[in-house]
Amino acid sequence: MFIFIILLSLCQTAIAVSPLVDLSYTKIQGTALSSGVTQWLGVRYAAPPVGTLRFAAPIDPPATTGGIVVDATRFQPICLPNSPTDFTMKPNKRFTVAEDCLFVNVFAPSGATPESKLGVMYFVQGGGFGSNSNANFNGSDLALFGNIVVVQVNYRVGVFGFAQSKEIKAGGSLNNGLKDVVQGLKWTKQHISSFGGNPEQMVASGDSAGASALALLLAAFADNDPGLFKGVIMESPSVATIRSLEQGQEQYACLTNATKCNKTADTLACLRSLNATALQTTTCQFNPHLDDDLVKKPSLDSFAAGAVLKIPTIAGTCTDEGTKNVPKDTNTTAQALQFVNDQAFGALSNSSLSLIAQTYLNAPQPVFPNSGRMWRQLANAHGDFRAHCITARLQDGLAAAGTTTYNYRYAVLDEQQEALGFGAYHTVELNGVFGAANTDGAPPASYRSNGTNAAIVPITMAYWASFVKTLDPNADRAPGTPEWKPWTVAGQERLRFQTGNIGMEKMNDTQNARCTMLNPMLAAVEVPTSKPGTLELNSASGVGNASSTGPGIPQAQSGGDMPSLATAANPIPLCLQRMTGVALFVSALLSL
Ligand SMILES: *[C@@H]1O[C@H](CO)[C@@H](O)[C@H](O)[C@H]1NC(C)=O
Ligand SMILES: *[C@@H]1O[C@H](CO)[C@@H](O)[C@H](O)[C@H]1NC(C)=O
Ligand SMILES: *[C@@H]1O[C@H](CO)[C@@H](O)[C@H](O)[C@H]1NC(C)=O
Ligand SMILES: *[C@@H]1O[C@H](CO)[C@@H](O)[C@H](O)[C@H]1NC(C)=O
Ligand SMILES: *[C@@H]1O[C@H](CO)[C@@H](O)[C@H](O)[C@H]1NC(C)=O
Ligand SMILES: *[C@@H]1O[C@H](CO)[C@@H](O)[C@H](O)[C@H]1NC(C)=O
Ligand SMILES: *[C@@H]1O[C@H](CO)[C@@H](O)[C@H](O)[C@H]1NC(C)=O
Ligand SMILES: *[C@@H]1O[C@H](CO)[C@@H](O)[C@H](O)[C@H]1NC(C)=O
Ligand SMILES: *[C@@H]1O[C@H](CO)[C@@H](O)[C@H](O)[C@H]1NC(C)=O
């Protein structure tokens, strides 16, 4: 009898997680894949944010009653984008869009048990805070390879996630998209053991805007750690435009005007009464913003002050961060400088624009197929001020605060992408993290299992999974790969990912000097300026010699010539745009 009980209990602990999971408030039915991973798709982690919950903070999902088993074998919709012309609005085999979109997808090794306590990677997709742009990736290969649980989250974006005004502050809640990310983390912490995951070993990983969101949360949790993650990975981060309430109010006016709700006494009630698609615009801009609560300061300020949650992190960028995020038909210095200054809300002085021109635009670059003469030069500038230099500054702050932080440069050479001029573009590393068959759009062909860069995928996965399990990318790295040393302010060492040539390198001196020059501009990218045309770059950096015979500043480039915030029909933070749907995105830019 005694032995029987022991056997029974052994037997119970050995039972793998069933595709039918009972979460007490609901039962969900997933799918066991033949590969040895079980997936639960479209799992609701918050109540539908519709009706009176539009513009409100997320709340727990309602319980399902009557013993109903919820189908988790199919994806549910992703969140409606801000713009009706966003690529996610187009028919796509992988997703549909809707306002009711607060779902996670979970991937776990099928052999896991509730006692397995596997490391958990919680993936926050990008999309410039205006779109769910890396939606419904297939986490099954990463989960299997790393023996970890992978969770992917949809969160509200654009007007639905980030509308900001005194009306919304009073009758709803601010920064709801960011609160969705937090709600998803809370849901994961509460329930992930039912899928084999360890609620005490969660690592949040985000790309592009998802990475910027995590930077904001690292700052938000500086003095009050809710224990939702033990480590963070920021892939190709940038900074979003962080508006004050007054600046947000102008965008709210843009919205009430566009919807004609400006004519009603209760604009918020009016906005809540409309069909969700009626709230979409191409002109009104919504991003994470100052709310005196979750976001008290711009992230660059918090990181510079060391006011961050002190946990291990990874962050990094791809060599050619700018190529997919600047207008491909840029031909002239004037067009390029206009674009650069728009990114800084017109902050740059004429001499600063001269420095940019001499540093980047005068440098000869090859001309690529179907692209403007000045495209690659502009892309190089954009890559620095929207990605490389920002990442370096965030990590300087983390390192100075005494945390362990690892930097990478994703420099994988894909023959086709190099020939097209895109190079190792913004967020291309996701193909290494998830495997090229599991992302969206058209990944570089060479990353496929039969391609020349196939080997970089398991190498990338191993560093990532190792960090998820141990907070150290080295503990379980692939055999024969180099030790990844932490980033330091003095050393500035980073791991170069390149097939056959992976290794530690120092941040290149030229790039470093350019970042020194650009440093004053970075804050102006994050916070719209009130003084256009006055910002001076650091001309003593040794680059961009302003006294040489440069092109001068064409008339149209006057720093004071910028669109005002309220009327800025300017691109939303372009660097935070998607990697997928890039063709559509670029053609949208061409038509601006
Ligand atoms: C992930 O890939 C596996 C293997 O191709 C497939 O069976 C599974 O349905 C995919 N999952 C998703 C969510 O696409
Ligand atoms: C209001 O909308 C009209 C067109 O519908 C536009 O011409 C005008 O500039 C808008 N005003 C503001 C303040 O956004
Ligand atoms: C409201 O917006 C409309 C455009 O939709 C504009 O023509 C009108 O002047 C605005 N009215 C007020 C009171 O702001
Ligand atoms: C909302 O608008 C969309 C697009 O115009 C339309 O297809 C849908 O039927 C509308 N929904 C309602 C409830 O009116
Ligand atoms: C750049 O030049 C090309 C080729 O002449 C032209 O097709 C394109 O429209 C130009 N771009 C702009 C923004 O003028
Ligand atoms: C590699 O595999 C893809 C499908 O995964 C296929 O389309 C392509 O033709 C293959 N390439 C080679 C060189 O075999
Ligand atoms: C150093 O960085 C500059 C600017 O980013 C780049 O043009 C150059 O090729 C880099 N040099 C090396 C050796 O990587
Ligand atoms: C600019 O270049 C000139 C000539 O090469 C040199 O004399 C001058 O010191 C440089 N100025 C700066 C700020 O680097
Ligand atoms: C900047 O340059 C433009 C064009 O040369 C000129 O019109 C403008 O006055 C200059 N601005 C300042 C502040 O010098």
UniProtKB/TrEMBL annotation:
Pfam family, one: COesterase
Range of residues in the leader sequence: 1-16
Xref: InterPro entries: AB_hydrolase_fold (IPR029058), CarbesteraseB (IPR002018), Carboxylesterase_B_CS (IPR019819), Type-B_Carboxylest/Lipase (IPR050309)
Region Disordered, annotated ranges: 540-564
Keywords on record: Signal
Coiled-coil regions listed: none
Polar residues: compositionally biased ranges: 540-558
Ranges where the Carboxylesterase type B domain occurs: 18-506
Annotated protein name in UniProt: Carboxylesterase
